[in-house]
Structures
1.
Amino acid sequence: MTDLPIILLAAGASSRMRGTDKLLEIVDGQPLLRRQAARARGVTTGPVLVALPPPPHPRYAALSGLDVKPIPVPDASEGMNASLRQAFAALPPDAPAAMLMLADLPELTERDLNVVAQAVDLTSETLIWRGSTEDDKPGHPIVFTAALFPAFANLTGDGGGREVVAQAGTRVQLVPLPGQHARLDLDTPEDWAAWRAGR
């Protein structure tokens, strides 16, 4: 699916960073948010929707010049499900599926996104295709078929869409990605320091 819409979740408060913004941490010479948005843009001709805190916010400047659509989330403080409600509602009405990814997974590569996108088979019974770690732990990105889109409209709290994944039951296909690419997030200054030391 070369025109798969991609939703990038980037509206969280970064509260565990003690005053700095993890999505604006510099990785490979650019803010992490811009780097991950560019990776999403590189794998699809479809729209890239970025869920963001309400403006004004420095994250908007980090995306300047990129062909992505900011989706302000007025109630972002509620939790991740507020972002999912807003972003899924903003998808093109004819989209047969959409990819969801978190902005704070620094090891997730363009190749990883492509591997998951290429696993999608809309003629199958599968409803979700999901990146996993090398030891089979489910992570991101996640592709949802359009049959599941309505389920996002009523989500509340900070479940991160787990309720929708549960609805799919056994109709979920894990797509192995290298190492811990699918799950490694960096939430604290100590996480960032350890990750940088290991690069």
2.
Amino acid sequence: MEDKSKNSKVLVIVLIAVIAILAAVGITMGVLLMNNNSSQTQDTAKQQGVVFDSDASHYEQEVSNAGGAEQGIKIPGYPDMTISSESTDFPITLLNPEENPCNFKFTLSLQETGETLCTTDLVKPGDAIKGVTLDKPIEKGTYTLIINISTYSVDSNSQMNGAQVKSTLTVE
């Protein structure tokens, strides 16, 4: 009878040890899979061409919504601007409002000439690029500045509805 009791105790101890080992292996596998999925998501983003603009930083000021929609993508407005014909510094703040579900990519061009002044990489919601440097100065004159905003989902990087904002640019 003592042998059965000892055998039962040994069996219970062995079962507990096996369960503990299986639980440890399961937890380890779960952690490894989660880390692997995280790095795969980052690799996928890089493969999809997700590149955030290094000049963008967090933006704190409140802005008006030129798009006018209460829900959906918020589009900032841009005032008329005056710049010097001798400078390549273009003092514009390209903002992606914090509430947006998407990243912005900006392309600035002149309607009259079709010339593209600059194209940014992606800007995260709540970030802004404060000023851009042009490749060359713009000739004196008055232009319609077209600010084309392409939008990409923060989750899947799929393209969403974009927007185009126009402003008057005076170059003196």
3.
Amino acid sequence: MNGRTTLLPPTENFTTLGNPEDDSVVSNDFSTALGALILGLVFLLGVPGNLFIIWSILARAKRYSVTTMLILNLACADGFIMALTIFFIIYLAKQQWVFGNPMCKLLFYLCNANMYASIFLITLMSVHRLVAVVFPLKVTFLFRKKIVLRVLISMWVLVMVMSVPSLVFRNVRLDKDEMNKTRLVCAPEHELPRHVRFQYAFETVAGFILPYAVIVTSYVLILKRLRQTKFRRNVRSEKFILAIVVMFGLFWLPYHVINMIQVAAEWYNENSSTRETLDYIAKSSRAVTSALAFISSCANPVLYTFAAKSYIRQNGFAFMARLFEGISQDQSGNKKNRFTGKTTMGTSNADSNSANCAAQNGDVE
């Protein structure tokens, strides 16, 4: 923890701190190199992938469902944050922050906002699926266009407010690593241990544990309902639903585990060997786990493409739009309108209502 320099460039508003929890956060060569590689791949895949989704919805989709509106918001959020990854790639590659203090605060604020927006949008999609499958007669009333727009606006306002700690607790500072090399880092600064516990615990509870619990509960009830029907074309749909849940948890869980490790470290004395171990784990893993979290923003286009692969040959570049419209042809050649919940033949009214509502909300063939 020693070796912090107090020589600051006179033209910059950099800060120092007596005992920050993240000294030399980019001094681990392996961690930062791996993180830069992951972010590079994320950038190349995520930017065009999310732009393609946005284009498919705005230019090629003939009608919008609730799920389509939520996916459009998710793609806009993910596409925007993917475009900003170039700054973090440079940061990790140079192992030094070169963009100034305002950009340090702004970029990490936007990343934090994207984290909340992504999980909240996925949660809204899961709740919409739950109502459509379990209470199909109420879905039209509860998810009217005006209500959905109001919910989305409220969600974005809430996201911006919840991300404020990233503006308050992050600054550029000068650090010296174990090799006595001075570097500028964009890192959290907490004057008191309770500030550390508040920020990281709040991120994990509000941005992962609570919404993810809603998602898992919703999908459990959805699968239970689908298994009670006689509509047997839902096997691939079940896999698709589980893939969404597992994918999100897989990429975000390591990030939140590191958050909890950081929180746990603050409960030990400064000279405790346990605290030193936990601090080392958090500092050496933060770059990689943050990069893994970014993958979730570029994985959705891949998942949608896999889900819509049966449309590619017939619809060409419009295949994604056809998926979002929720219109497809079953194996027997019968058309189903997945927005009205009616089918021409093959299932009972009750089963077709539940099955078609499930299909409307992302359950594809």
